[in-house]
Design brief:
The complex is a heterodimer. In chain A, 38% of the residues lie in helices and 17% in strands. By secondary structure, chain A is of the alpha/beta class. In chain A, the strands form three sheets. Chain A has a seven-stranded mixed sheet with strand order 3-2-4-5-7-6-12, with helices on both faces. A five-stranded mixed sheet of chain A has the order 9-11-10-13-14, with helices on both faces. Chain A has a two-stranded antiparallel sheet with strand order 1-8. Chain B is α/β, with parallel strands linked by helices. Chain B has a domain of 207 residues: Thiamin diphosphate (ThDP)-binding fold, Pyr/PP domains (Rossmann fold), CATH 3.40.50. In chain B, β5 and β6 form a beta hairpin. In chain B, α4 crosses α11 and α5 runs parallel beside α6. The chains are: A alpha/beta, B alpha/beta. At the A-B interface, α3, α4 and α5 of A face β2, α5, α6 and α12 of B. Chain A: GO terms for molecular function: oxidoreductase activity. Chain A: It comes from Cephaloticoccus capnophilus.
Amino acid sequence: MPTITYREAVRHALAEEIERDEAVVLLGEEVAQFNGSYKVSEGLLERFGPKRIVDTPISEAGFIGMGVGASMLGLRPVMELMFWSFYSVAFDQILNNAANVRYMSGGQINCPIVIRGPANGGTNVGATHSHTPENVLANHPGVKVVVPATPYDAKGLLKSAIRDNDPVMFLENTLLYGEKGEVPEDEYLIPLGQADIKREGTDLTIVTYGRCVLHSLAAAETLAAEHGLSVEIVDLRSIRPLDIDTVLHSVAKTHRVLIVEEQKPFCSVATQLAYMIQRDAFDELDAPIKRLSTIDAPAIYSPPVEIEQLPNPKRIIAAALDAME
Amino acid sequence: MVRIRRFEERSLRAYQAKKIGGFLHLYIGQEAVAVGCCSLMGKDDHIITAYRDHGHAIAVGMEMNPLMAELYGKATGCSKGKGGSMHYFAPERNYWGGHGIVGGQIPLGTGLAYAIKYKGLHGAAMAFMGDGAVNQGAVHEAYNLAALWQLPILFVIENNGYSMGTSQERSSAGQLAKRAEGYDMAWDACDGHDLYAVRATMDKYLRRARETSAPAIIEIHTYRYRGHSVADPDNTYRTKEEIEAYRQTKDPIQNFQNRLLAEGVLEDALIKEINDAARAEAEASVAFSEASPWPTVEDIQRDVYWEADNPSQRTSTGQLFFD
């Protein structure tokens, strides 16, 4: 099986779906002539031409809203946000229009749009460029929210997202674009809403998603080698729809849970998970549910300190040991 | 125009009788705008508007029953009682709402035009907004995209002089449609009290949009007799005399009626017949709404996700709704 980067996996998914379906069009800032701010769309303009790969002005409310309108009339736009952080200026278009139009029309309309781009901290770009809005997005019924961690997942989930008839928010990560993984050459799809056990274990379940999956895997190696702990890692992959069954199944096996997220703690994804786990698996728990979130402040610029603000293997090890108390 | 007015007069009475919740933004006085514009629509022309949306709904041919039932919040409403007054939709009639956030529908309308052009259809989009919407950033972003990509769209400013309770001179600098010049876009203005003037102006730019994919901003001067919404006391920002002067001299229905009478096209008996029929239709829509069922509590979670509503075609797994 070929080993490719996350960036290439996203690009392959885009290319395959643009090739497959005339209604799919990629729009965003710098996606065409510039080959993508993070080179995700490199070569796509040359291959598919300017009708399918479209540079937009810096105008997120305008072009995201335009994509939503075009999706109402049957196109399948894939809109790239250079950073998901810029969703704030398009909030009305995403969460009032894309999320609500189906409902307010009594089910007469649907918006098969994908909005994708990186959503992460850890790159020393300060508070305005480091938002991780998956909890905010998932708080809005009508949208789906996907956060892939690996090249294999990114490709299979993006292809499903583009074919989905509901609006899908697809959150990538600039620090994952260069990560490599095995991806089959043959076509495959991964259904939205299916968690994946990234590592099997018996002592502690870490529920996580996105780049924190990689951190958790690294932490699990150390926990095994130095502390003799067997950690199971559940990668949610999709926040909404949510595969709570896989989480509960793992909790029933290990009886201890740590949730790791690159999120501010208040009303985060972990908050929702903790509620559901205690409600549905209370008797399985040998200890309180623990979570590790981003330290609760706007994203700090200072490079070495930002590493400490976010979940990292060292913080995960400490939190895991705490969960074993 | 008569059907719109009789429908809205009846809805006002229902609102005052507390049969209708929320807001009710009446279009009374502005009828010639929606009728003039929508009467020009071909099969590939599409429209979208803001929350003062009843006139456009009737102008594209929607029946009164589902419209009144929507105001009543009944399951037989055009949006199954989920949208309300501000959120009428009829995509089968190329009517894409009915939107509540001022100016928020304009990027969507631009997307309709984008899709028309992408698909190579011989059509155009009309995106309606009030004069209060022109200062929203999203509107200007849409202007730029439409001009930059030469999308077949007409931005129609229904200028009734007041953005809620603030007059145009207190809220907007310069002539509203003239802002098109900054985007190198065509613009025009016309008298919205005159149905023929609306049609003549819009026809010219619609043809141009369909044939050359060129956008334009059209400002149509009109006037609403009622408050911003029915809840608006309407006595702080304009005088009763001003409203009365418009009613007496500029009413779009009366003007059109006078013209047709003078031309011998219309006679008094036919006027009565048209009015009686519209009144009866409005009255029947009230009876229909009164007799209609409410949506159920189970209906609250329907029409949220396409997939949840089409379970046999669902491809995702996992939990979509939470409690």
